[in-house]
Amino acid sequence: MQTELKNTCLVDTNIFVYALVKEEGRKHGIASEIVEMYYSQKSFVTLQILGEVFNVIISKYKDKEILDICKEMIEQIMLIDDVNKLHYTGKTIMSATEFSIKYRKPFWDCLIAATMIENNIKVIYTENVSDYEGIPGIKAVNPF
Fold it and tell me: Which run of H or of E encompasses 45?
């Protein structure tokens, strides 16, 4: 990737998953580069995304080694002071329900979008650009 991540961005679940799974080939390389840049600068993550990463890995991949690597990555992120860990609140959930109804988007993606808006984060790196299209104030970037 030739550009730096902006300080006010999120990396979505699928980027972390592709960074963990070498079998993803080209996507693994790009995602690994994004995650490496992510670690090297002040950044943000939602606890929801970290939970989703582990859920995808444990659901899709049965290899204990990948589960251990995923767990270790999450632990590392939790320990890095320069990674701001974002929580959602009741207000966030209400905003997400409104977005989901108004924009006809999946609730869990709307919860990420609402968390972003509340924290003035404008960009999310994701393969699932369509999940965020039309939500004002959010720019979804597909790095692949």
Answer: strand 43-46
Question: Domains (ranges, CATH) in the chain?
Answer: 9-141 (3.40.50.1010)
Mapped onto helix, strand or coil, the DSSP state of residue 84 is strand
Q: pTM score, two decimals?
A: 0.88
CB 30 within 8 A of CB 14: no
Write out pLDDT tens, residues 68-111: 999 999 999 999 888 889 999 999 999 999 999 999 999 999 99
Across the beta sheet with 123-125, the strand order is 9-11, 123-125, 139-141
Length of the chain in residues, anyone? 144
Q: What's the CA gap between 137 and 123, in Å, rounded? A: 9
Residues contacting residue 121 through CB under 8 Å, at least 6 positions apart: 8, 9, 10, 44, 115
Q: How far apart are CA 99 and CA 137, in angstroms?
A: 12
> What is the C-alpha to C-alpha distance for residues 121 and 8, in angstroms, rounded to an integer?
5
